[in-house]
Amino acid sequence: MVRASGFSGTADAPGDKSISHRALIFASLATERCAVSHLAPGADVRSTAACLKSLGAQIEMDAAGAVVTGCGLTRLKAPAAPLDCGNSGTTIRLLSGVIAGSGVGGVLDGDESLRRRPMKRVLDPLRAMGARAQGFRGAGGDETAPLQFEPGKGLTGQRHELPIASAQVKSSLLLAGLSANGRTTVLEPHQSRDHSERMLKAFGAPVQILEERAVSIDGPCLALKAPAHLHIPGDASSAAFLVAAALIAPGGEVEIRGVNVNPTRIGFFNVLRRMGATLELTPEPDRAGEPVAAIRAREASPLLSTELVSGEIPSLIDEIPILSVLATQARGWTTIRGAAELRFKESDRIAQMARGLTAMGAEVEELDDGLKIRGPCKLRGTRIDAASDHRIAMSFAVAGLIAEGETFIHGAEWADISFPGFFQLLSRLSGGAVSVRGEERQPGERDK
């Protein structure tokens, strides 16, 4: 890709990935037929669907969405082979709660990237509830995939105080709590995404928000009732890349329609306003119990530096890579702290952003739990390794739109994990500044 002379137009945000996973899982645990439209199109959600079918759910998918006929919590079947979660941390962690609660047993596995991600944080609280589970124990002392769950019954609800706010771990424990005897309570140090709580209510589960940052569910609750139709809102994390490009590209102005603006998901947009960006949100009808809006963004000059602290991180954890790109164009030092969780995503996102931005000419200091970035600076095109990480690929694609010279991203195809067609859309909005070359390997394909 080369430097863009402009960036403008309109687009619809792809279906929200986090909510799409949950819609398929909860619909599979009910017994009614549920039509899910505007499902996230990426490979991660297909991994969740394939695993659920192996557990007994009937799922028919097409380009527009899926029709799910659930088997109910009490009729899940033991999978005949290990469940392949692909590259999806959401899939493996949420299904850990499902399998632990159901007692059917099974193995959860994934690609080489997923096998490096820490799983002790979800296994320990599940074991405290009575699950018989273990992961692969490597030299580092943590547990990773493959995860082995032994058949068994009789989980007991527990109170869990999580050391790190995590919507995936919280959701896993609530899913296990559906089958457990007694109350399961999850308390976080900071509030994480609340999509599971909202969807549990939509499916008739006895979920309660007890206090700030605490949620509980009383079990067993084995009779979830699926709504006839769920329309998935647009993904705020995907929209973030297009908004960011409009803020820093010459003459940038875009409108992204149908974006999920759940308060636990708009931390990125709140930070952008703090940095001096002009954003207009026009409310649209709710979808799947989530607030939705069209977001209009235009070039912001100059952006101002800012400081992110740990309490803000859960609401924008996925947007920190693209926020790091924006920081290179903001006046002063931008500091991001409390984001150590980024080292355990599809790649070490702190290290990858520091390495790539430095190669492009930015002044970056890598911290144990974040980054310090000084701007504004002129970026130069270079070769970037996406490190099998969709958000790294897309972040540096946006950086390439303002860099002098050509930027080549090795592994650009990993964007398809969450945003199929991203580079084609980026090319349209940038007037052809992006060209896509073929790759021999598909995203999620195992290393040989």
Describe the protein in words.
- The chain is globular and about 60 Å long.
- The protein has helices at residues 17-29, 43-54, 89-102, 120-128, 167-177, 195-202, 236-248, 267-274, 320-327, 349-359, 390-400, 422-429, and strands spanning 8-12, 33-37, 58-62, 65-69, 83-84, 106-109, 133-137, 143-149, 159-161, 182-187, 207-211, 214-219, 229-231, 253-260, 279-287, 290-298, 303-304, 307-308, 330-336, 363-367, 370-375, 383-385, 408-410.
- The strands form six sheets. Strands 17, 18, 19, 20 and 21 form a five-stranded mixed β-sheet that branches.
- Residues 438-448 have low confidence and may be disordered.
- By secondary structure, it is of the alpha/beta class.
- The two termini are 29 Å apart.
- The longest helix has 14 residues, at 89-102.
- It has two domains: 8-15 and 233-429, Enolpyruvate transferase domain (UDP-n-acetylglucosamine1-carboxyvinyl-transferase, Chain, Alpha-beta prism), CATH 3.65.10; 17-231, Enolpyruvate transferase domain (UDP-n-acetylglucosamine1-carboxyvinyl-transferase, Chain), CATH 3.65.10.10.
- The chain is built from twelve helices and 23 strands.
- 28% of the residues lie in helices and 26% in strands.
